[in-house]
Design brief:
It is a multi-pass membrane protein. Helix 2 runs antiparallel to helix 3. Helices cover 56% and strands 12% of the residues. Strand 1 and strand 2 form a beta hairpin. The protein has seven helices and three strands, in the order ααββαααβαα. The longest helix is centred in the middle third of the chain and has 35 residues. Strands 2-1-3 form a three-stranded antiparallel β-sheet, with no helix packed on it. By secondary structure, it is mainly alpha-helical.
Length: 241
């Protein structure tokens, strides 16, 4: 996506740079800036997350020992293990306990899309600001922009709902419901209590930004469509007797 527009920018036909920031006052440019900003928030609120879930374990010779499992993006929870309560591992009754689930595909899809959209918005803004005259004269550019806008709007829809579902599963896999599935907690004389889990407020925000991006790109389809010859042809047909 980005390569197409960047190649066009440096091509001989587009050598005449005409910088015009007035496009920011039009929906086409203003919405593109919002899409650029919101894409940053989408991957920034998700990609750098780090957290941990904590249990209190009482077993042979140990009382209310804190054990933790630290997890982070891209949320391959099945590789995250709880620390042992003590060096003797509760007299041999404590075995390695892993969290459940691998949610990397959903979250990496979401973050990768946000990064690609970020790059595409930069390339598109370069064309809008410096080469708007060529963009309007060559019908291929608006049509390509329209096709990419429709595809991105659809991908935001798919990735956001996939990530929202994965986030709900992550909360389940790191919350109090994990205790019944821990075999070591069922050993005679061993009790486990859920203590805490890192707040996932920023991850909730990332889903919100995903929805906002979906709405922005879906709404922008109309403004990009107005610059294509498809819209011009429909106007001519409606005006013809």
């Amino acid at each position: 996506w980005c390569g197409f527009l960047l190649t066009a920018v440096v091509s001989p036909r587009m050598a005449g740079l005409r910088v015009d920031f007035g496009l920011f006052l039009e929906p086409l440019g203003f919405i593109k800036v919002l899409e650029w900003i919101f894409s940053i928030f989408a991957f920034a609120t998700c990609g750098g997350f780090q957290g941990e879930t904590t249990l209190l374990v009482s077993c042979k010779g140990v009382v209310n020992k804190t054990v933790t499992a630290a997890f982070a993006y891209p949320f391959r929870l099945n590789t995250v293990v709880f620390s042992a309560p003590d060096p003797k591992r509760c007299g041999g009754t404590w075995t390695d306990v892993y969290l459940v689930g691998n949610f990397s595909s959903s979250v990496q899809f979401f973050v990768t899309l946000a990064v690609l959209v970020f790059l595409y918005c930069i390339a598109a803004l370069v064309v809008y600001i410096g080469y708007k005259h060529v963009y309007q004269q060559n019908s291929k550019f608006p049509l390509t922009d329209l096709a990419i806008t429709v595809i991105i709007a659809f991908l935001w829809l798919v990735s956001t709902f996939a990530w929202a579902k994965a986030l709900a599963d992550i909360k389940m896999s790191t919350g109090a419901s994990i205790i019944p599935g821990i075999e070591s907690c069922k050993a005679p004389g061993t009790t486990c209590r859920f203590a805490s889990v890192t707040s996932m407020g920023t991850l909730n925000v990332s889903v919100v930004f995903g929805l906002l991006n979906m709405v922005l790109w879906g709404g922008n389809v109309w403004f990009v469509y107005k610059d294509t010859n498809l819209h011009n042809q429909s106007n001519r047909l409606s005006q013809s007797p």
